């Protein structure tokens, strides 16, 4: 079922969902299952699985030289989506990136999704690779998320890349896109970023999932401004619990988001990571309860592959 259908069927009740990261290649999928199992009691109607950018690794050739290789360290998004769907009978949402893929390769993935019965997708641009100053699309690839939305929407209209084909089976994908309550880091202003979001919606996006935020006022302001410019589709808040001291530095650095003073003070007072984790859980519970009371369609948690804190939050909220 589509994410938007799950939301309609919930008739105003807030749903629970979460996002997973594929394991590093060479690691077992069992660890992922062990983290999903405790969350299934909260009946997520859909689970997202991220896709990671390719990266350069350096292999020691044993002669004092290093071999530079381009590889994807966490492959398997589609396979994981299929296995979770099969094992737990839950809808899965693979994240599709512009970065690192040609349109042709993207089309193959979309065809695979159709055969697997996966009809929800998150359409994302992806970030620059670690050694790049700014995002560079692969030759023959999509430049912005909107281009990916258009490609998916073309398939929904039965239009493949090479129009010589006789299409008797149109795709029917439900398309999610990213939104940024504190604006995307490359965007000159929130208003200009919202205009870009509106363009993605006009191109066929069905729902929005937000970047993490720690101050609900940012989300409420974002939704209000989005509604003002005619974005009417569901806007799902993304929640991440703080778990370690380092999050205070790396989350603002990576995502250009602000952390509230009260949260920073509470983390600073902690003596160890156990206490910090508890502060993060309690903050996320308060955020979730307020968002739920405001009637958000879904609370979507960034689990980063670890479920224990998400389980504790969900047990207080759902
Ligand atoms: P876009 O919508 O293309 O926007 C990127 C920037 O370009 C913005 O600043 C926008 O304002 C601007 N822009 C858009 N259109 C135009 C235009 N026509 N001309 C000029 N500027 C334009 N990353 C991963 O690598 N893997 C994941 O699985 C993943 N999952 C995510 C899930 C969620 C819910 C979110 C919020 C983010 C996720 N990301 C993921 C991160 C995402 O890939 C990055 O934030 C990326 O930098 C932007 O992606 P986007 O889809 O928002 O890009």
Automatic annotation (TrEMBL):
UniProt KW keywords: Amino-acid biosynthesis, FAD, Flavoprotein, Methionine biosynthesis, NAD, Oxidoreductase
Domain of life assignment: Bacteria
InterPro entries cross-referenced by the UniProt entry: FAD-linked_oxidoreductase-like (IPR029041), Mehydrof_redctse-like (IPR003171), MTHF_reductase_bac (IPR004620)
Family named by the database record: Belongs to the methylenetetrahydrofolate reductase family.
Signal peptide segment: none
Catalytic activity, as annotated: (6S)-5-methyl-5,6,7,8-tetrahydrofolate + NAD(+) = (6R)-5,10-methylene-5,6,7,8-tetrahydrofolate + NADH + H(+)
EC number: 1.5.1.54
Pathway membership: Amino-acid biosynthesis; L-methionine biosynthesis via de novo pathway; One-carbon metabolism; tetrahydrofolate interconversion
GO biological process, one term: methionine biosynthetic process
Cofactor: FAD
GO MF assignments: FAD binding; methylenetetrahydrofolate reductase (NADH) activity
GO CC field: cytosol
The protein's name in its UniProt record: Methylenetetrahydrofolate reductase
Pfam family of the protein (one): MTHFR
């Amino acid at each position: 079922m589509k994410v938007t259908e799950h939301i309609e069927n919930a008739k105003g009740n807030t749903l629970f969902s979460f996002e997973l990261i594929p394991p590093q290649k060479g690691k077992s999928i069992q660890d992922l299952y062990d983290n999903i199992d405790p969350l299934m009691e909260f009946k997520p109607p859909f689970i997202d699985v991220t896709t990671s950018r390719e990266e350069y690794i350096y292999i020691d050739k044993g002669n004092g030289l290093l071999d530079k290789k381009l590889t994807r360290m966490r492959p398997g998004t589609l396979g994981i989506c299929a296995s979770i769907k099969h094992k737990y009978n839950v809808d899965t949402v693979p994240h599709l990136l512009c970065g690192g893929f040609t349109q042709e390769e993207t089309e193959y993935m979309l065809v695979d999704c159709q055969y697997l019965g996966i009809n929800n997708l998150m359409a994302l641009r992806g970030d620059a690779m670690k050694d790049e100053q700014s995002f560079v699309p692969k030759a023959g690839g999509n430049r912005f998320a909107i281009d990916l939305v258009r490609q998916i929407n073309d398939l929904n209209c039965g239009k493949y890349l090479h129009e010589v084909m006789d299409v008797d089976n149109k795709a029917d994908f439900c398309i999610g896109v990213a939104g940024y309550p504190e604006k995307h880091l490359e965007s000159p202003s929130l208003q200009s970023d919202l205009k870009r979001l509106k363009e993605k919606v006009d191109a066929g996006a069905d729902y929005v999932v937000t970047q993490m935020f720690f101050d609900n006022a940012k989300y409420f302001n974002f939704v209000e401004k989005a509604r003002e410019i005619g974005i009417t589709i569901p806007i799902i808040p993304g929640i991440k619990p703080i778990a370690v001291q380092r999050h205070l530095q790396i989350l603002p650095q990576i995502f250009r988001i602000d952390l509230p003073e009260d949260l920073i003070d509470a983390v600073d007072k902690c003596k160890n990571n156990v206490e910090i984790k508890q502060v993060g859980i309690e903050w996320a519970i308060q955020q979730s309860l307020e968002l739920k009371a405001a009637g958000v369609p879904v609370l979507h948690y960034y689990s980063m592959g670890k479920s224990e804190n998400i389980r504790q939050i969900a047990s207080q909220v759902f």
